[in-house]
Amino acid sequence: MHLFSGYPEGESRSIALPEAFFKDLLPRLDHLGELKVLLWAFWQLELTQGAFPYLLREDFIRNTTALAGVAQDRQQAEQLLEQGLERAVQRGALLQTALELDGELRQLYFLNSPRGRAAVQAIADGHWRQTGDPQTPVELQLDKPNLFKLYEENIGPITPMIAETLRDAEKTYPINEIEQAIRIAVNNNVRNWRYIAAVLERRKDKRKGEPKDRQDAEKARRRYAEWENPPAARRK
């Protein structure tokens, strides 16, 4: 057994794992290759640049870190890792899509997150281009900003409920109006979807040319306050 010497002193980069990994996935994992695949995928995707990070099939197989400890024989280790990758896709922990590039079928893998699902859908809709780079052969081309990324960067983490709410909002409001509502929320330091929804609702109902952003923000703040502290609660 190799003795671990401990974590080094000073700052060390941390890799975030979603709570659902420990609560829902980890208790069900019974295959070493699958566990290795998922942990390594979280690590590599965290280091990958771009709004929609992905990994190629060969990224998993040729990586010595992921193969180490799976089996003594490399060929057997690769087979177990292949099995683990297939199990991770079947379980839904990873999303897989395939594209034919230069006559070769390339497998792409994303985390099964709101951003990963959006990426797979974008590829299915044809919103991608070939880069010519064998390491990152595909680049997504989205005509509109990624609302999930916008929300994450300005308001907070994406939960399944928030993801569903954002999808519904995209169907109801133009993306530029959602962007403006998020900007108003940030400017007023109210980083909450209820406040953003109040701004959007007020803008939807307003008459042409009125009110302005400041008035929208104030009315939204009052509406948000009423939701948080309804009249019945104030009388108690």
Task: Write structural notes for this entry.
- The protein is globular.
- It has two domains: 19-140, Orthogonal Bundle (Arc Repressor Mutant, subunit A), CATH 1.10.10; 147-235, no CATH class.
- The chain has a three-stranded antiparallel sheet. The chain has a two-stranded antiparallel sheet with strand order 4-5.
- By secondary structure, it is mostly helical.
- Strand 4 and strand 5 form a beta hairpin.
- The chain has helices spanning 19-25, 32-47, 57-61, 64-67, 74-91, 114-124, 147-154, 160-172, 175-187, 193-205, 213-228, 231-235; strands spanning 55-56, 94-101, 104-111, 128-130, 138-140.
- The protein has twelve helices and five strands.
- Helix 7 runs parallel beside helix 9 and helix 10 crosses helix 11 (213-228).
- The model has no long low-confidence stretch (mean pLDDT 82).
Return the domain count: 2
Give the DSSP E fraction (strand runs of 2 or more residues).
5-15%
Say how many strands there are.
Answer: 5
CATH architecture of the largest domain: Orthogonal Bundle
**Principal-axis shape:** globular
Order of helices and strands: HHEHHHEEHEEHHHHHH
Q: First CA to last CA: what distance?
A: 65 Å
- Taking Cα atoms only, what radius of gyration do you get, to the nearest Å? 23 Å
CATH topology of the largest domain: Arc Repressor Mutant, subunit A
Q: Mean pLDDT, nearest integer?
A: 82
- CATH class categorisation of the largest domain: Mainly Alpha
Name the strands of the widest sheet in spatial order.
1-3-2
- State the helical fraction: 40-55%
Low-confidence spans: none
